[in-house]
Design goal:
heterodimer, A: 609 residues, alpha+beta, 3 domains, six-stranded mixed β-sheet, 25 strands, B: 249 residues, alpha/beta, Rossmann fold
């Protein structure tokens, strides 16, 4: 017997459902209108909510100033902080800044002469203030001006201005200059102050010059930033004990917090040698803090005229060199004091208290055959330098200038590097005095504000304006969902009742469908398909009504809107969501009718009149 | 597989259907019912004797309360379909597939779907079965049954006689093996009923389709029927009636 090719009863259900709806077109039309009457106002409401909020948001978003978070206090931010903060979610742009006083430039008027002061602001790749205001990020030798700065200087893009940086050093006024090419002028909304945006390295060089340092790459003369000396404490050796009053005097207004007597073992531990016979040792220290040069000078002042040996010491600096681990001792003594301690004259002499004259400090007395020895000292960044061995050590440990130990101790807390050119040490930049941060979107501003204040950084941001919009958005959303819930409940009720009634009305027809070969599961989809068709038509009618109403609303408020802005608008994803939600609700609404359809007894239904 | 030339198309043995409505109970008993391929079987009896109940059981839309054997052999070369097992195993989808592929049904008032036109009504079983559209064959049959101008009309625009003819066409067009007709001419006058039955019988014979016609007017089918089943009713108690289906000789 010939078997049917490919029975596909389920595929016929939508067409049959549609034919049934078409046959009862008046009832169908009523249902579609009823649904459209629910859907259209909801779409308009959603469009109004979205359009209003988006218009307000766009007005904020379009202006990057609303995404800026400015530090309200000056403090130091380490490079590591910038690396960490740049990776925070929501950070769109972050660059260090310098002290406001260090970022003031004199710019002579190109034609009239006479210089005025301008704020110098660092910028970098991705700066939204520049990019979103149509300006390129300046490169080396380039700047971007605000409207006010360009107005005062009477310049425009393509012109060149001269930056003049001034400082006072050693009682003399010094000036450095650099030509700067103007690549763009920002529109007024980017700020009303006279500002000049330049690459960060130029701003840092200006800051360094103002602080007395040089910028060799720009030909600006000046000192190099040398590291300060720091010590763990100072050992005081005296031929006779110090009266209690004088002992106490040594920790008053000197920067030291404690003075203690040292037994011979304590001296040995700190210096690797014993105190002269009969001499008394004292240890001056400030637990938990660094001993600075000023504290040493203060004690020297108080011991003026008294026979003594005052020796700063560092205990914890060790290094690796020549394949061995070394624990050097820092000693700088005048030959007479060295002799008192049984030491030969030291090549570097007495305590100078300065980190400069570097080559003098990279010397050692050590029992090593080779010289120089490449030494690596752990620190904030490892300090690597060549150590010149100038003789054998008179002690069990290598002996180096205590100034070198002071520098290397500082290197435990601040970045220090060896400068081969000068043979000395340079203090690397420790941190920055501020930052310019822009959030990726205005929604990210409150979160970043919280995070920064959570880290103890006071910042200024347009949080209140943004939060007002967020509160408004949340309020309107709640209102919308409440109305939507009521509307959808009505729509669902209409669909459930109508589809269920349709099944009851068409029991006989559904019975006939079962009789001619449709199974229960096929008939189940008959009301479901009808629900989806009615919902689709209702949605289409609702969308047409929405578009008409939205156009009317936008026309009515056209005077209050900027070009491109709309009070009532729906993005495609909202429309898609509305379509999916409506069809989903239609399916859910038809389930009761579908269940009823499967429970119709065809034997009874086909004989009903 | 061996072919049994006398193997019935439908075989129902030891079947009964018990139905209750309020306090009244009705039981139809079918000791032995056989329908051979291509034959016309008349089922005649008074109102309420269980004719339609029997037809619904044969149409696989009503489950017998009890059945010893219920088979249908739609494929002469194949094994019979054990309908009893399908009912017992709740094989609703399989039963629907049997209705779709092998059965046709003509209701008292046609049973046409009011939302489909005549052509769509006639073609629906073929479409469900996955057969190609009847096309020219439908036009020829419509012409023969006097329905040539009616194919694009809706059922409510037809006369009762036309609807019955459309229903007969719908029942036959998808090449079933068995057509079940529940008083197909009850709503038309005797002369028209005779013509409808004659057309029905002729079409079924041409297609070797077995037909079971339920009627309370035995005269209408007496000359056409190969065999007739009747009913013997008895009142068992005040509220219970029993009807026994038997082969008239």
């Amino acid at each position: 017997m010939e078997r049917p090719a490919r029975p596909r009863p389920l595929r016929l259900i939508p067409a049959l459902a549609a034919a049934h709806l078409r046959h009862e077109w008046i009832l169908t039309l009523c249902l579609v209108i009823a649904l459209a009457a629910v859907i259209a106002p909801l779409l308009v409401l959603l469009g109004l909510k979205h359009g209003t909020i988006e218009t307000l948001r766009d007005r904020l978003v379009e202006d990057p100033m609303f995404r800026e978070l400015r530090p309200a206090q000056t403090r130091e931010y380490a490079p590591e902080w910038f690396a960490r903060a740049a990776a925070w979610p929501g950070v769109g742009f972050l660059t260090p800044t310098v002290l406001p006083l260090s970022s003031v430039l004199q710019i002579p008027h190109p034609r009239r002469g006479g210089a005025e002061l301008y704020d110098l602001v660092p910028t970098a790749r991705g700066d939204p203030l520049l990019i979103e205001n149509g300006a390129p990020v300046p490169g080396a030798g380039e700047v971007v001006l605000t409207t006010e700065a360009a107005r005062r200087l009477e310049v425009s893009p393509g012109d060149t201005i001269t930056a003049r940086v001034t400082r006072s050093r050693g009682g003399r006024s010094e000036v450095a200059e650099a030509p700067l090419n103007i690549v763009a002028v920002l529109p007024p909304r980017a700020g009303t102050l006279a500002r000049i945006y330049a690459p960060l390295d130029f701003v840092l060089d200006v800051e360094a010059y103002k602080e007395g340092y040089g910028a060799p790459s720009r030909g600006w003369a000046g000192a190099s930033p040398e590291p300060f000396l720091s010590f763990d404490g100072v050992m005081l050796l005296l031929p006779e004990p110090l009266p209690p009053i004088e002992r106490t005097g040594l920790i008053i207004n000197t920067g030291f917090a404690r003075i203690g007597e040292l037994d011979p073992g304590g001296v040995e531990e700190r210096l690797g040698l014993a105190a002269p016979d009969g001499w008394k040792g004292y240890d001056l220290e400030t637990p938990g803090a660094t001993v600075t040069l000023s504290a040493i000078r203060a004690v020297e002042q108080k011991l003026r005229g008294r026979e003594r040996i005052l020796m700063p010491y560092v205990t914890e600096v060790t290094w690796a060199g020549a394949g061995v681990h070394m624990h050097p001792v820092g000693i700088s003594l005048e030959p007479a004091d060295a002799a008192r301690l049984g030491l030969p004259p030291l090549p570097w002499g007495g305590f100078a208290g300065r980190a400069s004259e570097g080559r003098q400090w990279t010397r050692a007395l050590a029992n090593i055959d080779t010289s120089p020895v490449e030494v690596s000292v752990p620190g904030v960044v490892p300090v690597v330098f060549p150590l010149e061995i100038v003789g054998a050590s008179p002690l069990a440990r290598p002996v180096v200038p205590v100034e070198l130990m002071g520098i290397l101790r500082t290197a435990q807390q601040r970045a220090v590097e060896f400068d081969p050119a000068s043979g000395g040490f340079l203090m690397l930049r420790g941190g920055y005095r501020g930052f310019r941060m822009y959030a990726r979107s205005i929604d990210d501003v409150p979160g970043l504000y919280q995070r920064l204040t959570g880290e103890g950084i006071e910042v200024i941001a347009e949080v209140e304006a943004i939060e007002r919009i967020q509160v408004l958005d949340a309020g309107l959303s709640r209102l919308f969902w409440l109305i939507a819930l009521l509307g959808f409940s009505g729509g669902v009720a209409v669909l459930v009742a109508s589809l269920y009634a349709a099944v009851e009305r068409r029991r006989r027809d559904l019975g006939v469908l079962r009789l001619v070969g449709f199974a229960r599961r096929h008939v189940f989809f008959f009301p479901v398909a009808q629900g989806m068709i009615i919902a689709g038509l209702g949605l289409g009618a609702g969308m047409v009504a929405y578009m008409g109403l939205a156009a009317t609303i936008n026309r009515a408020f056209a005077d209050d809107l900027a070009p491109g802005e709309k009070f009532c608008t729906l993005p495609p994803e909202y429309v898609l969501t509305a379509v999916v939600a409506t069809l989903l609700l239609a399916v859910l609404s038809s389930l009761a009718a579908a269940w009823r359809a499967t429970h119709i007894d065809p034997a009874e239904a086909i004989r009903e009149q | 597989m061996t072919t049994d030339p006398v193997a019935p198309l439908a075989l129902m043995q030891g079947a009964s259907k018990r139905r209750a409505q309020g306090e009244s109970v009705f039981e139809l008993q079918v000791p032995d019912l056989r329908i051979a391929p291509g034959e016309l079987v008349a089922v005649a009896g008074d109102s309420g004797c269980g004719k339609s109940t029997l037809l619904d059981m044969l149409a696989l839309v009503m489950e017998p309360t009890r059945m010893e054997r219920f088979e249908m052999r739609f494929d002469p070369d194949g094994a019979p379909v054990d309908v009893r097992s399908l009912w017992l195993s709740s094989g609703e989808t399989a039963l629907a597939a049997l209705r779709r592929d092998y059965l046709g049904y003509v209701l008292q008032t046609g049973g046409l779907l009011p939302f489909l036109d005549v052509a769509a009504n006639i073609g629906l079983p073929s479409r469900i079965k996955g057969l190609p559209e009847p096309g020219a064959a439908l036009d020829a049959l419509a012409e023969r049954l006097g329905l040539a101008g009616c194919l694009r009309r809706m059922p409510d625009a037809l006369s009762i006689g036309q609807r019955q003819r459309v229903a007969i066409l719908r029942a036959l067009m998808h090449q079933p093996r068995l057509v079940l007709a529940d008083e197909p001419t009850a709503a038309v006058d005797k002369a028209r009923a005779g013509r409808i039955m004659a057309d029905f019988h002729a079409l079924a014979r041409e297609r070797s389709v077995a037909v079971v016609v339920v009627t309370h007017d035995l005269d209408l089918v007496r000359s056409l029927a190969d065999k007739t089943y009747g009913f013997l009713m008895e009142r068992v108690s005040e509220h219970e009636t029993r009807s026994l289906c038997f082969l008239e000789t």
